[in-house]
């Protein structure tokens, strides 16, 4: 029988579900996308209907794969979003609690005296992002759920687990998603009994933790019946994998509404003392895992949206590049977009945004340039934290995400970081990473070297400004950041 020439990947994201079909060279041949509803029952609460997500995933998979013989299916997903469902019926017992949701703050306060211990075990700070405290909230607040969990009648998972269970009937998660729960020991790659006790979570409802590239089961029913589900990675780790960052010191930054920079740190976890998260980057089959340091930036693309929607400085996001390029520099003006506090490496919820250095000379073009430069300066803060945490220096930065179409931003990044910045030919790196993992697991691609050979640059930027200017502006940026603190 002739070999099937395609691999598909589901990208279940915060606002939509997509399916993309890739050929043997990593090129895109089919795609489909559907949005789902965002639910905000109270201030700070964000929920999704997991059943709606599942229906959308079925629809996009059928649409994207029509006409293609698919050898394997991979999954990448919004991380930390928490689903609990009935083992017998498959129905969710409550809306999924989304990673952005902040309702678990009171639960985290009860763990404050154990924060150092928890960070040592999990690599994570006590923050409302992570899935374990969201599960605890559901156990505490959904009638009868704790008793049902104790009897093994309900199952927990992040979105990857939910989809694998619906597709195959197996209750598993991968190491990258498990590492975002506050429940997994980074070194043993298993659930930590002490943390389960601390959060009051029955082990019986947790999925089995498996590698990122492995056949978890085969699809039951529908057009994809019998196709192996063979790869799963949280979205940012999937982008790292899709960017072929397989060596220590290789890293990528995804530029979207916010931005996420991950750097491969190799076979041992590096616990950050500079405000970064330690996470599993990926694990291929029985091989040892690769770990990563992650720096998350809350507001990058969202700042451009704010200039458009709230200030009316531009009519469309695509206008900002030309406006910012119409001036040679920022005129001494800096924008720090701490709209809901500062994320990595500061973790300051009390910070609020500032525009600093205003004079009568400043025009909307200077503001546009300062907005783009804010993404670059925030990236440098994360890169400096990474350099301080590890002796594995970043050699160049691979970029992806919607903002990377902005060539001026890419040049600003290179100038500010004093590093080459490289954009790949295939920018759908999240889906590509999940497809790569699934393809590896079924032998569609032989090894990491074959995937590395597919990676092709689309464009590269080199630093153009001198060191004196770079350091002078860096000093000004840090002064502007200091003005944001202690506001709330």
Automatic annotation (TrEMBL):
Inhibited by fructose 1,6-bisphosphate (FBP). GO terms for cellular component: cytosol. It comes from the Bacteria. ATP binds at residues 14-16, 257, 301, 305, 402. The keyword Cell inner membrane does not apply. InterPro entries: ATPase_NBD, Carb_kinase_FGGY, Carb_kinase_FGGY_CS, FGGY_C, FGGY_N, Glycerol_kin. It is an enzyme of class 2 (transferase). The keyword Kinase applies. Sn-glycerol 3-phosphate binds at residues 14, 79-80, 129, 235. GO terms for biological process: glycerol catabolic process; glycerol-3-phosphate metabolic process. Pathway: Polyol metabolism; glycerol degradation via glycerol kinase pathway; sn-glycerol 3-phosphate from glycerol: step 1/1. Residues 6-242 form the Carbohydrate kinase FGGY N-terminal domain. One of its GO terms (molecular function) is glycerol kinase activity. ADP binds at residues 14, 18, 257, 301, 402, 406. Glycerol binds at residues 79-80, 129, 235-236. Residues 252-441 form the Carbohydrate kinase FGGY C-terminal domain. It catalyses: glycerol + ATP = sn-glycerol 3-phosphate + ADP + H(+). Keywords: ATP-binding, Glycerol metabolism, Kinase, Nucleotide-binding, Transferase. Its EC number is 2.7.1.30. PANTHER family: GLYCEROL KINASE, SUGAR KINASE. Belongs to the FGGY kinase family. Key enzyme in the regulation of glycerol uptake and metabolism. Catalyzes the phosphorylation of glycerol to yield sn-glycerol 3-phosphate. HAMAP family: Glycerol_kin. This is Glycerol kinase.
């Amino acid at each position: 029988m002739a070999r099937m020439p395609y691999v598909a990947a589901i990208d279940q994201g915060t606002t939509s579900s997509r399916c993309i079909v890739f050929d043997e060279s990593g090129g895109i041949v089919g795609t489909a996308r559907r949005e789902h509803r965002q639910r905000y029952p109270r201030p700070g609460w964000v929920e999704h209907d997991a059943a709606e997500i599942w229906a959308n995933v079925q629809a996009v998979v059928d649409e994207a794969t029509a006409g293609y013989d698919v050898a394997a299916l991979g999954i990448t997903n919004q991380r930390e979003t928490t689903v609990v469902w009935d083992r017998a019926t498959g129905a969710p017992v409550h809306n999924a609690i989304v990673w952005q949701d902040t309702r678990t703050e009171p639960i985290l306060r009860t763990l404050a005296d154990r924060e150092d211990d928890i960070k040592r075990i999990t690599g994570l700070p006590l923050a409302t992002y992570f899935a374990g405290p969201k599960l605890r909230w559901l156990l505490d607040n959904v009638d009868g759920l704790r008793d049902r969990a104790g009897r093994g009648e309900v199952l927990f998972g992040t979105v990857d687990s939910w989809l694998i269970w619906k597709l195959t009937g197996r209750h598993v998660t991968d190491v990258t998603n498990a590492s975002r729960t506050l429940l997994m020991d980074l070194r043993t790659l298993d659930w930590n009994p002490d943390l389960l006790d601390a959060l009051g979570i029955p082990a019986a409802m947790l999925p089995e933790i498996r590698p990122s590239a492995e056949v978890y089961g085969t699809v039951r029913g529908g057009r994809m019946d019998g196709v192996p589900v063979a790869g799963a990675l949280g979205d940012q780790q999937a982008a790292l994998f899709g960017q072929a960052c397989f060596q220590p010191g290789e890293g990528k930054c995804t530029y979207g509404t916010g931005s996420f920079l991950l750097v491969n740190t190799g076979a041992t976890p590096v616990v950050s003392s500079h405000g970064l998260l330690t996470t599993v980057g990926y694990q291929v089959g029985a091989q040892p895992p690769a770990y990563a340091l992650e720096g998350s930036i809350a507001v990058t693309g969202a700042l451009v949206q704010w200039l458009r929607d709230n200030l009316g400085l531009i009519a469309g996001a695509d206008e900002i590049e030309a406006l910012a390029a119409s001036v040679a520099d920022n005129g001494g003006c800096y924008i720090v977009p701490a709209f809901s506090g500062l994320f990595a490496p500061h973790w300051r919820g009390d910070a609020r945004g500032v525009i600093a250095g205003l004079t009568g000379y400043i025009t909307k073009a200077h503001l546009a340039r300062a907005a783009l430069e804010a993404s670059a300066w925030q990236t440098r803060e994360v890169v400096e934290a990474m350099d301080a945490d590890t002796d594995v220096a970043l050699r160049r930065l691979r970029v992806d995400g919607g903002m990377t179409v902005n060539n001026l931003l890419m040049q600003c990044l290179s100038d500010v970081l004093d590093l080459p910045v490289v954009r790949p030919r295939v920018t759908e790196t999240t889906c590509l990473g999940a497809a790569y993992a699934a393809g590896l697991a079924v032998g569609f691609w032989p090894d990491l070297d074959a995937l590395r050979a597919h990676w092709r640059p689309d464009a590269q930027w080199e630093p153009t400004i001198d060191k004196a200017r770079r350091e002078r502006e860096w000093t000004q940026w840090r002064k502007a950041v200091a003005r944001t603190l202690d506001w709330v």
